[in-house]
Design a protein that fits this description.
Low-confidence stretches: none
Distance between the termini: 11 Å
Number of helices: 5
Radius of gyration: 16 Å
Shape: globular
Number of strands: 9
Mean pLDDT: 96
CATH topology: Rossmann fold
Bound molecules: guanosine-5',3'-tetraphosphate, sodium ion
CATH class: Alpha Beta
Strand content: 25-35%
Helix content: 25-40%
Oligomer: single chain
Length: 188
């Protein structure tokens, strides 16, 4: 998306370690008008897929996720990164290793919010190594739901997540696809 690429060029900051900082509109301060535009684009891309639920992860997936769900007129559920306090509830869990933070998080969703027969659209802010996407897909599939695709705001196509998703037969839509962050420059 042109408007997103322009915003990244204008406000994105490239940090060492191939990290693109976009916390002035996506990861800390959030631009709601831009998020709505992104949500409309996800909804357009997946309009023929009978999506019944959007699944994302807290925290940064929630903004694009809610806008996509709003435009598709379906509920959004976000996986939590903290263990649920009510252990009596039936939950699906998945382990997500973060290469950037060197920690493993257990993400979870209560079973009552993901169903067999659901057609799930997975949304996230960033696709890097794909660990978060894999975890979200696992949660949906544990429920017997079908993953109709993965939509991300920004993918770093040179890291492993992009290829993993395509190699495993998942549809991937990235609204901005970053080819390189070499020398502090963003190349799409
Ligand atoms: P992966 O899920 O694709 O494997 O990503 P990885 O472990 O490498 O990244 C861990 C966290 O860092 C994720 O957020 C991911 O979205 C984010 N991230 C990865 N690369 C970038 C980048 O270049 N720029 C920005 N801004 N974020 C990046 P998270 O831990 O789930 O955090 P949050 O949702 O609470 O923000
Ligand atoms: Na994220
Ligand atoms: Na993030």
């Amino acid at each position: 998306m042109k408007i997103l690429e322009e915003r990244i060029k204008k406000d994105g900051i490239v940090l060492p370690g191939d990290v693109l900082k976009v916390n002035s509109f996506l990861n800390h301060q959030i631009d709601p008008q831009l998020m709505m535009t992104l949500g409309q684009e996800f909804a357009r891309l997946f309009k023929d897929d009978q999506v019944t639920r959007v699944l994302t992860a807290e925290a940064s997936g929630i903004a694009p996720g809610i806008m996509a769900a709003y435009c598709l007129k379906v509920p959004m559920v976000f996986a939590r990164k903290k263990k649920p306090s009510t252990v009596t509830d039936d939950v699906y869990t998945a382990e997500v290793y973060s290469y950037t933070k060197h920690v493993t998080n257990t993400i979870s969703v209560e079973a009552k919010f993901l169903h067999k027969g659901d057609r799930v659209l997975v949304i996230d802010d960033f696709l890097a190594n794909g660990e978060a996407a894999k975890g979200l897909i696992s949660l949906a599939e544990q429920a017997g739901a079908e993953v109709v695709g993965v939509g991300v705001v920004v993918e770093k196509a040179f890291q492993g997540g992009h290829d993993w998703l395509l190699d495993h037969g998942y549809r991937l839509e990235a609204l901005a696809s970053v080819k390189s962050l070499k020398d502090g420059k963003v190349e799409f």
